[in-house]
Hints:
Blueprint: E1 3-10, E2 19-24, H1 37-40, H2 48-58, E3 64-68, H3 78-86, E4 91-96, H4 101-109, E5 115-119, H5 138-149, E6 154-161, H6 167-175, E7 183-187, H7 200-210, E8 216-219
Parallel strand pairs: 2-3, 3-4, 4-5, 5-6, 6-7, 7-8
Antiparallel strand pairs: 1-2
Amino acid sequence: MKIAGFQANSFVDYKGHIAAVVFVAGCNMRCWYCHNAQILDTDVLYDEEDILKKIEKNKFFLDGVVVSGGEPTLQKDLPEFIDKIKAMSLDVKLDTNGKRPDVIKKLLDEKKIDYVAMDVKAPLDKYDKVTPTMPVDPEILKESIELIANSGIDYEFRMTVVPQFEISDVEEAAKALEGKKAFYLQQYVDHGMGLLAHDKKFFEVAKRAAEKYLPTFVRGVEI
Ligand code: SF4
């Protein structure tokens, strides 16, 4: 595994869990607001065995491990890495952008993961607003959405509501998730672009629009 970041414990990244978070290098999207852009192409990597030892050392107060990124499904040895985590009796949450349904399916079929959080970055046919240099086929995203929603494990879909989005963008994305379990609208955090994040009022209206299709929650904004 190409591990480019590690957080020994987190109370907010895995619902109901105290979890270590492993960030892998590399991604098959290039979101302009990427909060982890510095690790996408880095050659500065952690030693996997060292990370596993750190997790092992803390396993008595951890409930699980989040495998995040970057995009974890690009890592060839992801299943073996997860096996090593499971051998410590810890739950595994996968964070994914949903661009590799084949890998998600295999992980689900082999019951390797306990929770999936998939980013739905925009209305499915408007990903060019977010990742213009690495296009995304909406059919691929639909496949991942259905796999996750029908998997029988706990999951969430989540969207970072960037300043360019209108209420209609949020509603359209929610429509593609109709009948699913949970949609989280996350506040955009500006990292030097000088863009103004949407306010509380916007999120109130966006939440109501999305709730026509599925239970919707807001993160990062008090409403
Ligand atoms: S999918 Fe995630 S890690 Fe990849 S570029 Fe987008 S925000 Fe960054």
